[in-house]
Design brief:
Layout lengths: L2 E11 L7 E6 L20 E4 L9 H5 L5 E4 L2 E4 L9 H5 L5 E4 L1 E4 H9 L2 H7 L2 E5 L7 H13 L3 E6 L5 H7 L5 E5 L5 H8 L4 H12 L4 E7 L7 H14 L4 E6 L5 H7 L13 H12 L4 E4 L2
Parallel strand pairs: 2-8, 8-9, 9-10, 10-11, 11-12, 12-13
Antiparallel strand pairs: 1-2, 1-7, 3-6, 4-5
Helix pairs in contact: 3-5, 5-6
């Protein structure tokens, strides 16, 4: 049985597919989007985050660290990165929750145990399970086994993907995936690389193949002012989707900067500090443009 690295479960989700859902977040992403609201998802490794404002300097983590990687000096906590193995003991022992372990290894059975707790909500609402990330297809064998286990008990499945993966990875999960939530960010490959770290040829080719295979797909477009909300990109996006014929719905996801505090805790600079969320009128204009191509369009989420 495969195991995977997950960093969160979101219960009672209503924005990741139909009905009430459980969203399982898998760790690791090949993209580095400038606006990423889950920066803790990018590294595929288990990580430890430290919140100094929560620390009460009690020394519990120092005393119990099995690698002697922590020490107290001049009323501050010090960590030796060369010694730290990210075992999570500090997070488990910290009474103030100043340490947070991001990610844990789980078997498919352990994931299914979480999912089974919510089965009554799926039955009543027509919901199910969504595998998100990061990019869940960075862990293709684990994802496939988890999807198969869901289908074995009759649970509706969705996969939220960037599409940046080998086609064989997508192809092998299509029999077990009821819905794909497919991210589409920029049509110009050079600009896509500039703002996400990767080109978009693979993403577009995979979307074409997925659409041709008859899969149900909802396109998700993050609306990032100054990045992808210009008329040229929006028109190019709408034309591309229209040519696929099978795309019926587009979800607009307006930019927000709620995640800036995460970057601060991680000690990582935020790439778009001066970007403001798009106005409601701007989102309405984009929605109207997309609807003119025959798509059902929603915004928010």
């Amino acid at each position: 049985m495969a195991s995977g690295i997950l960093f969160d479960f979101k219960k009672f989700s209503i924005h990741d597919g139909p009905g009430i859902r459980t969203t399982a977040f898998l760790k690791g992403c090949p993209l580095h989007c400038a606006w990423c609201h889950n920066p803790e998802s990018i590294s595929p490794k288990i990580e430890l985050h430290y919140w100094p404002e929560r620390c009460i300097l009690c020394g519990e983590c120092v005393e119990h660290c099995p690698e002697d990687a922590l020490s107290l000096s001049d009323h501050t906590l010090q960590k030796d990165p060369a010694r730290c193995t990210r075992c999570g003991t500090c997070a488990a022992r910290c009474p103030a929750e100043a340490w947070q372990q991001i990610g844990r290894e789980m078997s498919v059975d352990e994931v299914m145990a979480e999912i089974r707790k919510d089965l009554p909500f799926y039955d009543e609402s027509g919901g199910g399970v969504t595998f998100s990330g990061g990019e869940p297809l960075l862990q293709p064998e684990f994802l496939k086994e988890a999807l198969q286990a869901c289908k074995a008990i009759g649970v509706h499945t969705a996969v939220d993907t960037t599409g940046y993966t080998a086609w064989r990875n997508l192809e092998q999960i299509t029999p077990y995936t009821d819905l794909f939530l497919y991210d589409l960010k920029l049509m110009d490959s050079a600009r896509h690389r500039q703002f996400t770290g990767v080109p978009n040829e693979t993403i577009l080719a995979n979307l074409r193949s997925l659409a041709a295979s008859g899969c149900e797909i909802i396109i998700r477009i993050p609306v990032i002012p100054g990045v992808n909300d210009d008329p040229a990109n929006l028109e190019s996006t709408a034309q591309f989707l229209h040519e696929l014929n099978s795309i019926r719905r587009v979800d607009l996801l307006p930019y927000h900067h709620i995640a800036i505090s995460k970057y601060s805790r991680m000690g990582v600079p935020y790439s778009l500090p001066d970007t403001s969320p798009p106005s409601a009128d701007h989102i309405q204009d984009i929605q109207t443009r997309m609807e003119s191509y025959g798509f059902k369009v929603t915004s928010g989420g």
